[in-house]
Amino acid sequence: MTRLHYAVDLSYQIDAPGADCVFNVQAAHTPQQLVVSERLNLSQPRALGWVDPQLRNRLLRLQALPGLLRLQYEATVDIAHHRAVPASLHELPIAELPGPVLPYLYPSRYCESDRLHAMAVAQFGRLWQGHARVLAIQDWVRQRVRFASNSSVGTTTACDTLASGVGVCRDFAHVMIALCRALNIPARFATGLDYGADPALGPPDFHAYVEVYLSHRWYLFDPSGTAIPMGLVRIGTGRDAADVAFATLFGPVRSQAPVVSIQSVAGSDGRPAELPWHTPEALSTDAGQA
Amino acid sequence: MTRLHYAVDLSYQIDAPGADCVFNVQAAHTPQQLVVSERLNLSQPRALGWVDPQLRNRLLRLQALPGLLRLQYEATVDIAHHRAVPASLHELPIAELPGPVLPYLYPSRYCESDRLHAMAVAQFGRLWQGHARVLAIQDWVRQRVRFASNSSVGTTTACDTLASGVGVCRDFAHVMIALCRALNIPARFATGLDYGADPALGPPDFHAYVEVYLSHRWYLFDPSGTAIPMGLVRIGTGRDAADVAFATLFGPVRSQAPVVSIQSVAGSDGRPAELPWHTPEALSTDAGQA
Amino acid sequence: MTRLHYAVDLSYQIDAPGADCVFNVQAAHTPQQLVVSERLNLSQPRALGWVDPQLRNRLLRLQALPGLLRLQYEATVDIAHHRAVPASLHELPIAELPGPVLPYLYPSRYCESDRLHAMAVAQFGRLWQGHARVLAIQDWVRQRVRFASNSSVGTTTACDTLASGVGVCRDFAHVMIALCRALNIPARFATGLDYGADPALGPPDFHAYVEVYLSHRWYLFDPSGTAIPMGLVRIGTGRDAADVAFATLFGPVRSQAPVVSIQSVAGSDGRPAELPWHTPEALSTDAGQA
Amino acid sequence: MTRLHYAVDLSYQIDAPGADCVFNVQAAHTPQQLVVSERLNLSQPRALGWVDPQLRNRLLRLQALPGLLRLQYEATVDIAHHRAVPASLHELPIAELPGPVLPYLYPSRYCESDRLHAMAVAQFGRLWQGHARVLAIQDWVRQRVRFASNSSVGTTTACDTLASGVGVCRDFAHVMIALCRALNIPARFATGLDYGADPALGPPDFHAYVEVYLSHRWYLFDPSGTAIPMGLVRIGTGRDAADVAFATLFGPVRSQAPVVSIQSVAGSDGRPAELPWHTPEALSTDAGQA
User: Fold this and answer.
1) What is the ipTM, given to two decimal places?
2) A-interface mutation test, from B52, B108, B181, most A Cβ less than 10 A away
3) Which of B37, B197, C268, D286, by CA, is between 20 and 30 Å from A245?
4) Domain ranges across chain B
5) How many percent of chain A have pLDDT more than 90?
């Protein structure tokens, strides 16, 4: 079990006549991720919470008045990963997928799997099906795309990234998801914080990664290669970045860069923390069923 | 109340080694649409049904063996529309939208509302909010896009259609949805059969239309102008065409054109049927809540 | 695969000022039970349907006006049971039960498992856990309770039945459910039609039976011993009879006895029907997850 | 808005071979109740969380090993009640109730509304329908039942309490719920902490109260009259006490009395806290829809 603590500090200047805000920064409650403490501080009152029963995303909504809006949140979570031997994980025939998994076969705003079908089949169609094929897709993405900060914008899609050959974690995730779906492997987008990111990549920030449905569970993949999967804290999940922005602001708003941090902490029993490491096992924090 | 009967006949030649199939042709059970009879005939056994609890889509899945696959389905539905005076319908602030409605604010595969934001605000941002603004969007789409059979393909998006100026019902729907979302008005894609389509448009076919969330209900709009909203039977709904294909076939399949038909029928009490007509009222068949 | 057809005919005389009605007679859509055709005829219009997303119960609601109310319904269903070797089925520790299964551990109106705890532990606590223990409970119920038509009333509970030693199918089910829950085995009440009932028991009627959660699925048990489990068509499921009455009438109503029938029919391919038989296998029509 | 803080401290001695535990002590996330901070400390690891999507109950499950088990939890919540003029609240016809509300019309383990139907109709059937009738039921319960600590046991039902004329908060709630349901008014059981309880009633403890569905929302009632409705923090809700025990322990366990506390705290803006008071308004913290 891993115990991680993270903090998020968001600041906005809201102009008249105010703005509707949706935040998705709270740690998800999943069967493998237990929130043991959290603290939320909002400088404006009357926020409304909502938890998506399927995706477990925790949305916070607010009609912000003109002036400063500051959201501070911190959480400590215990993660007890479901672990599996990669070679034991297989792809499922579509007729055996649970109903709620089906939407993750279809193209979405930033993952145009319909346009990548022929290429994906040519490239990966003859590989042995299962976890190894998904790893092959991940490796291929890492070879084709180069990580560079600020190299993409909000409208950049998987096809755009394949064309430019450069992107940030969000773009690596979109390409990998699009390729999986093009091969009829359910894949979805996840956001969170990552413990253990290389400081050379810049200050800590929200991270985007991938969950792939194999053998009746969602397994973690980090196509950008910048995180340690065991050190990922899940915040949100959805079809792609359109579904899980950490903040969506509807109105005249000036934003400051978010300030985030994450560290490993000792358990309540005083034992030293188990630090995330690059395990060869496949990891999952959610079967995706209630 | 309107009583309508429709029939669907789908034929496929499945090649080795077989194909996974997902069909979405059954009439949705909504609070205002009651399925009074239906009949399904599948030439291959072992189909599995699943009903999406939020969207009410009824998916039929099958691992089809090589050979012929034929799906025949017919249903009779009673539709008792919720009717409202258009001028009474208002847009809702984002903080008041029910959680399950939020995804319909975000861009999706074929509705790139993020790319259309500036244009939509310039064009419609100063209009009085409410049903009239949505009608203005619908009228604008009808002026900018020309209906032409077979003028688009499966990967055509709202931006593609705005560029080409031509499309089919699916494309009209995508453009209208993208514009609504760009203005923070929740909008979704619906498929079904339409009673009363102009025979000059060709043989009866599946139809695509739009539902917009106003005053806590989903209201019907037919941006292509080819149907009578009161004559729409709902089959599926989703973010865009990616979610509600009437058939998705994973494997080597040769398809024949679907054969569909729809007619108005008399009620069980023998009274003549109430025929759909172009009412000025706003119509809804679903509040979108359980 | 078994193909069964059933029909239900309900008649009521509604007195002034009318009555609200809730019906639960339509065949459930489960992963193993596919409704291939159905027909509903209501003598009064404006009924509203609702499908419970967890339980799959299909409720039909109506504000009936004074006068006659008649509901005729018929359905043909294909049942492809999930089959398991009984000895392979185990009880699950409470910490491994899916969340939606937990309510079926608790006492309910007609299944006072809290009052039966000590007795159940004394009687069955030392038995080997698993399918065999559930069978032992079923056998014990059959020995202690004698079937007699019209021997119980709507308020009769499991404890009442254990005291009187007599009951109908509903009462056998309540006793078995209460005993299972007293031993921390999730159990629920199911209603439906049963093909193959002994004609000596009277005219065909709705049937009540039991589903027990073992090895991550709900398995069928017929404690009254009057049905062939393979011939059960599922209509509703819930905690006990309070949840799944075939008709609940709120207001001044005079009811006639329901007329029901069920038969086996040939498949669409013309093959003779597979008749239900007393298989030694454990049968399930629902994993209880979406 | 009211900001309240509560703390719960539970201690158990688990004997061999261990025990499965289900806890329901965490503050519910409702649209009107925002958890701004919380802290959970469990002396044994590997707990699993689950949130019921309909009821919002947050269940914590654990396979506890022999030895001490201690659960400490504290939370600060902001409650922004939905407020309504009581005279404006009406009862809904059954055909207009949302589907998920229907189960709260039916009898449950400790609320035998089926047995109380005739009495309830005789007593309250002629009263004007709406909030005033529900208040009349609450007043009647307070007159018939006397509060006395430790006067009931876990199997005590509404009918038992009406016979004995004595009970604790749980029993007052069960009687009021049973009478509402007997009159076709949906009612459910809620548990939580209550700020402002009379210290003469003993040390702070978990509280049980009632939610009644009127005009499309669940409104708070405190039939025992020992709490200030505005000071109720919601933990769980369900059909009756069977669904929302704060702790359910399956195995050999010796429990100590729970230690709980609650106080009002100042908001983050430093303003003094708004103290709960006996408002004449009707209060709701949940519409019961997603």
Assistant:
1) 0.94
2) B108
3) D286
4) 2-80+246-264, 85-241
5) 85
